[in-house]
Each structure stands twice: as structure tokens, then as C-alpha cells.
TrEMBL record:
Keywords: DNA-binding, Metal-binding, Repressor, Transcription, Transcription regulation, Zinc
Endpoints of the signal sequence: none
Cofactor note: Binds 1 zinc ion per subunit.
Tree of life domain: Bacteria
GO BP annotations listed: negative regulation of DNA-templated transcription; regulation of secondary metabolite biosynthetic process
Name of this chain's protein: Transcriptional repressor
The keyword Translocase is assigned to this record: no
One Gene Ontology molecular-function label: zinc ion binding
Keyword Manganese: no
Cofactor field: Zn(2+)
Coiled-coil stretches noted in the UniProt entry, renumbered to this chain: none
Family: Belongs to the Fur family.
UniProt source species: Cohaesibacter celericrescens
TM region(s), chain numbering: none
Length: 167
């Protein structure tokens, strides 16, 4: 479970990249430089980034090295690959993406995101019991859910503490 509070984040980046390499090896896929650099940007923060945020960040780095600019389509292609292989999640309400922080353990049926309105961070949580409940509700409706994601907006523990201290 990812904590919304500040933590040693270098560990998160290593874990995300390591898990992606392992998935690629297992499935015989290639984590190209482009895919890896997009994943690295997403893993570098728990604040979801839009495709254009990613493009801007990659292109400003390329500019420094006098390299050719990337087109948005190449970012979208990399994002599709990462999404399809469960390395990242799409946060619909923000039209943005975040690296999966449950890479080391199998995903439950439902992914829950707690999204902080103040600092923008997204915490990823899983619940077997909620997953089972949604499966039952869907079965009653003869609905076949695929990769359900629940987004819960609010204020994270860290932001709430800052608020009480200053008031
Ligand atoms: Zn982290
Ligand atoms: Zn995940
Ligand atoms: Zn917050």
C-alpha cells in the first residue's frame, strides 16, 4: 500500500522500473528507451501527469541535448503500452496517468485511488472485499466490468496536518 505521506521516494522509482523490466522479460516485450523514459517520469511523482506534461518534460530534456523533439503521438503510444501491461493507471477525472504502485503483488479486481485536492497526489489502494462486492453487484446486472477503478477525492493526511497546524 502506498502512503500519501512523504517517504523515501527513490525506492518507489526503483520498484516501478524493476517490475516493468520483469514484466517485459516474462512476456517477451521490449521496454524501449521511450517507454522507459515515460514510465520514469510517472514513477518520479505520485501526482498524476497528463500526456502533455510528460511531453513537455521529455522535450525540455531533449532540447538541452539538442535532440529532435518528440511528437504527442509517440507519448500516447508509450502510454498505451504501459497501460496495457499494467505498469501505469489512467486517472479519468484528471485526464492523467500515474505509475502503478502495486507492481510487486497481483492486483485485486478493483483499484481505488484516493486523490488529494490540495497537493494533487494519488494514493493507490486495493480491497479484496470491495472487489468482491462490486463483482456481485455487476453479476446481478449481468454486467461484465473490466479493470474497474474507483476515484475518491479528498484531502490527504499530510495536507490535513498542515491545515490544522496553521489554523
Ligand atoms: Zn513514492
Ligand atoms: Zn496498480
Ligand atoms: Zn495532499
Amino acid at each position: 500500500m502506498i502512503e500519501l505521506e512523504s517517504h523515501d521516494h527513490s525506492h518507489c522509482i526503483d520498484q516501478v522500473l524493476g517490475a516493468a523490466e520483469a514484466v517485459c522479460k516474462e512476456k517477451g516485450l521490449r521496454l524501449t528507451d521511450q517507454r522507459k523514459s515515460v514510465l520514469k517520469i510517472l514513477a518520479a511523482s505520485h501526482v498524476p501527469a497528463s500526456a502533455y506534461d510528460i511531453l513537455d518534460r521529455l522535450n525540455s530534456a531533449r532540447k538541452e541535448h539538442a535532440e529532435a523533439m518528440l511528437a504527442p503521438v509517440s507519448i500516447y503510444r508509450a502510454l498505451d503500452f504501459l497501460l496495457q501491461n499494467g505498469m501505469i493507471h489512467r486517472i479519468e477525472s484528471r485526464n492523467a496517468y500515474v505509475a502503478c504502485s502495486h507492481t510487486m503483488s497481483p492486483h485485486s479486481e478493483i483499484t481505488i485511488f484516493m486523490l488529494c485536492d490540495q497537493c494533487g497526489r494519488a494514493g493507490e489502494f486495493q480491497s479484496e472485499s470491495l472487489g468482491g462486492l462490486i463483482e456481485r453487484i455487476a453479476a446481478t446486472a449481468q454486467f461484465l466490468p473490466h479493470a474497474p477503478v474507483m476515484e475518491i477525492r479528498g484531502i490527504c493526511a499530510e495536507c490535513r496536518q498542515i491545515k490544522t497546524e496553521s489554523s
